Hints:
The protein is mainly beta. About 5% of the residues lie in helices and about 35% in strands. A five-stranded antiparallel beta sheet has the order 6-5-4-7-8. A three-stranded antiparallel beta sheet has the order 2-1-3. The chain starts with 15 loop residues before the first helix and ends with a strand.
Amino acid sequence: MTEPRRPRPTPTPETRHYWEGAKANELRLQRCDACEKAYFPPRPFCPHCGSREVTVFKASGKATLYSYVITHRAAPGFTAPYAIAVVELAEGPRMMTNIRECEQTPEALLLDMPLEVMFETLDDDITLPQFRPARKG
């Protein structure tokens, strides 16, 4: 019997740049041209000032662990235990993600630990940005 697949997101016209970036191994964010604040998730207007003058840019891929919960119940496409995390990107926005290449324990998942983006290809259409502990050097 095959493992159940992880649920796939459905890209929309407003999020297309984000998913195309992920396929190219780039974490793409948006920045408001009026107030200059970066934001996530993707949307056609700035959540801070409402301006529709926004620019897509390639983020650094650096983040810190802001918060997490360790789930001990298996879900389709996940093997328990696994962390559901919120990371704070170097550019300011926070995003929900998973932490990879790290034990899924409170001893290993330290708040404010430096992280870096990595990409998990689910299929020909969807690649997910995930995070792992930042490598030295």
